[in-house]
Amino acid sequence: MRGISRRDFIGTAVAGGAGALLLPRWAAALPNQVPTGPSAIPSAPFTLGVASGDPTPTSVILWTRLAPDPLNDGGMGPGDEAVGWEVATDEGFADVVASGTATASAMYAHSVHVDAGGLEPDSWYWYRFSAGGYDSPVGRTRTLPAAGSSPAAMAFGFASCQSWTSGYYTAHTHLAAEPLDLVFFLGDFIYEGGTGGGVRPHNSAEVTTLPMYRNRYALYGGDAELQKSRAAFPWVVVWDDHEVENNYAGQFDENGSDPATFLVRRAAAYQAWWEHQPVRLAPPTGPDLAIYRGFEWGDLASFSALDTRQYRDDHACPPAPGLGDIGPVCDNLANPDRTILGAAQESWLLDRLGASTSIWNVLANQVVFSAMPFAGAYNFDQWDGYPVTRQRVVDVLARPEVRNPVIITGDIHAAGVADVHQVGEDPTTPRVATELVGTSISSQFNDELVDLAEALIGSLPWARYVNAQERGYVTVALTRDRMDANFRVVSTVTQTSATVSTDFTWSVDAEPLQGPTTTTTAPPTSTTAPSSTAAPAVTASPNFTG
Predict the structure, then answer these.
(1) Residues 96 and 180 in one domain
(2) Same domain, yes or no, for 156 and 36?
(3) Which of 79, 104, 186, 422 is close enough to 429 for a disulfide, judged by CB 3.0 to 4.6 Å?
């Protein structure tokens, strides 16, 4: 058979039965051919597990990668391979409702992205793959509720920042056991750095090329605990910086490299990310890949998954010596042309918010949105470095018709809750959104700065909770009346097993949030909320550690 070109991949499939594979639009014209003849797979190929993601009411993306020798370029050789797949309504596969054969292309590291269609809305399914006489582990996934439906409740989790060298993935063990419908991973799925020290070493020097990025994903993806949570629910995955390089901004790396040189590296990193994630996206053909996308849980919740890395301008102001990205304000910070989202993504987001009729509007975001001044200085890698863009978003969130905005965030290796006010550093102005910041899966906060950071952040009038000392994830239960966010922490990441507990719970009653033209008389709030803040009723658990 002829080789599969970069543009031909993914849609090459043969599907059978009433539950036939439905090809995405960008693959509709591709030939229905798969490799034939003896398999070239030398040993068990499903070493990186299975995953699913980007569900719709009638379909979901199923992912795996054939990698019998995962840390040595996968061990598959130069040929393509046929991969069978099945979807069933039961874990024993007595009722198979969709099946087919897809191509694992050598062009894309023998990864497989199947758009399994013809499924029922709001339904759970089990799926598996087979290749060369080997069967994959079984994964569980689900579809979204039908458009126009009115679900009573749903639950999602979110996580981020899983440095291999910083610790074991004990949090993923517990995340996999949570009663969730969906998981958002908000970035830093891998870290690009060298072997380093820590709990367990990386497998190479700093990764900069496509083969190196692939091997780094194979290292992380081979972790059994990560595989459990990836197989337990559909995921919505976005990237942050470490999937490419620390604190990069658009076409600029942190070392001042020539942008053209850096974009070659970014192209390799983006391709490797696509190859290893269950995303409903065409493969990249260069250094660009639009990953922002939306999901609707009936009329209960609208989710907007953002990209705050690829389109951003470089950092506005020089940092202070020894303070990383933190520095004093400069004139460039107020430049109205600076952006963190890019014009197209910002327009898409503001249009989505303005048109939403959902009870909850959730922005899945990478970096801290709320204002975090440090004695007159700011972290320019966060939304504080792009205040004009942030204010445009806040102004739309403040509209009364944009109901109950919630921003979920990763990146900072600390957990927190903050009120987002109409004027960012003025807590007497109406609260227009809630920001939930999740701690890391394993990545550590700077030990020397933990106490200082908790004290500074905790002193902000709009901060409701901060914990920079523990690792974990967040689960969020949504009903038509209430949101309950549980900040789950594990007892250790330096050992292979850990217990899990809830460190803090933040609850918000679902009500239309008041915009800037409304009064500032608030419904009853918890004793930690300023009495002048207009907001839905909120309550907090007593075990606040900030």
Answers:
(1) no
(2) no
(3) 422
**Tokens 């056991």 correspond to what residue?**
177
3-state secondary structure 118-187: CCCCCCEEEEEEEECCEECCCEEEECCCCCCCCCCEEEEEEECCCCCCCCCCHHHHHHCCCCCCEEEECC
267 and 285, same domain (yes or no)? yes
Q: Which two tokens stand for residue 307?
A: 């990209």
CATH number at residue 33: 2.60.40.380
Tell me what the pLDDT averaged over the chain comes to.
Answer: 89
**Mind listing the pLDDT tens digit for each residue in 336-386?**
999 999 999 999 999 999 999 999 999 999 999 999 998 889 999 999 999
Tell whether 78 and 184 lie within a shared domain. Answer: no
Please report how many Cα atoms fall inside a 13 Å half-sphere around the Cα of residue 35, on the Cβ side: 22
183 and 286, same domain (yes or no): yes
Please tell me the predicted confidence (pLDDT) of residue 376.
85
Q: What is the CATH number of the domain that holds 491?
A: 3.60.21.70
Tens-digit pLDDT profile for residues 248-304: 999 999 999 999 999 999 999 999 999 999 999 999 999 999 999 999 999 999 999
Compute CA distances 404 → 354, 457, 508, 541, whole Å: 13, 24, 9, 21
| 135, 185: one domain | no
